[in-house]
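Side project, low priority. Logging it here so it doesn't get lost.
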Amino acid sequence: MIDQKKKPFAPLKAEPVKYSETQIKAAKWGHYLLMALLLVVISFSIVNIVWPHLFWHHFDFVDYPLHSIMEALGAIAAILVAFMPLQVLFGKYRPSYVLLSTGFLVMGLLDLFHSFHKMSHGFVFTHSLALLAGGFFFALFVFPWKINADQLKKYLMPVAGIITILLALFISLNRELFPEMVHGGVFTAMAKNINLAAGLFFFISAVKLIAIYIKEKNLGVLILVFVAVSSAIAGYTFQYSEAWSDSWWLWHIIRLIAFIAVLSYML
């Protein structure tokens, strides 16, 4: 018998994914539509500050159930995004993505507790703290961290999640210990300053994310830009709004759209 030598198996090479022209066109339109939406949100926010109520008359609309539903939906979306791999949005993996995930987590948890509160002590404080904590972790993403990803993921999110839940429970059970932050429907200086700081944090992260998008042209990154920009606008325009006013509802709606957009893309 002829001794046939076995040939070693050649390693399988992953073939590049091929997209149809329809898929490519749809992706391009996705970029254009989201950039247009971003420009509209930014332009509208500026116009609404310079010429308030140009598009409609000022109104107040008090509806606790609707507010709770909107906050809860946004919070649940943020929490779900926190436990999903963010490389889906970026197209590749980096250790610092865990900072964005932690930002989504703490923001979602605090806003979820906030959704069950009624206007009183701790109501505005819980939401303001959610925006500030989320913006803080988003801003940390800007720095070139040299970190052990596995160790960071193992401890950062669980520790941050537990601390956030304990803090939210403490606020809920001891609301009289925390400032009301609203007097006569107008937000206090403390409330405005916390939200302004949160807006600054998100703005810093937005600059970094925009730079990544310009370089990589990734739709997932553009959606994150939308989250960062909308949250920055919510933090900055907070000082020009009043509880239950039209502008107050407006930034609730914009942030809810942003969170649902991220979750929908990742699903």
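Brief comment: The chain has nine helices and two strands.
Revisit when time allows.
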